[in-house]
Specification:
Elements (H helix, E strand, L loop, with lengths): L4 H16 L4 H7 L4 H13 L19 H13 L4 H12 L17
């Protein structure tokens, strides 16, 4: 079952509530297609750390290809002349020494991720 982090947190919180309402581990495991042991683990996490126990642990990922300063510079270049794509890509390449298509340019609405 794939889901986002907020959905998984909500699912765990609901499992805790169902447990408080005297649903068995097997019943909760049927509601959420997971193993009985997984439900038991969620409840143990809740008992150990009531709110933090519901959240996912931080996940590792690929480090960004651009430094924070480079991302700020890319944003600045993009905002200066958003209609001139070729010029902007050339300036980004000159500034970062990376091929502009080697990193994703996601819409960030003026914020640096």
């Amino acid at each position: 079952m794939k889901s986002s982090a907020p959905q998984r947190t909500r699912m765990r919180a609901t499992a805790v509530l169902l447990s408080e309402r005297h649903y068995s581990l097997d019943q909760i495991a049927i509601i959420y297609p997971v193993d009985r042991d997984r439900v038991s683990q969620w409840l143990e996490w809740w008992e150990a750390e009531p709110m933090a126990g519901l959240d996912d642990d931080p996940r590792s990922g690929r480090p960004p290809k651009l430094t924070r300063a480079e991302r700020q510079e890319v944003l600045k270049i993009t905002v200066q002349d958003p209609r001139s794509i070729k010029t902007g890509l050339k300036r980004i390449h000159q500034t970062t020494s990376q091929t502009p298509f080697s990193f994703p340019l996601l819409p960030c609405k003026g914020k640096i991720p």
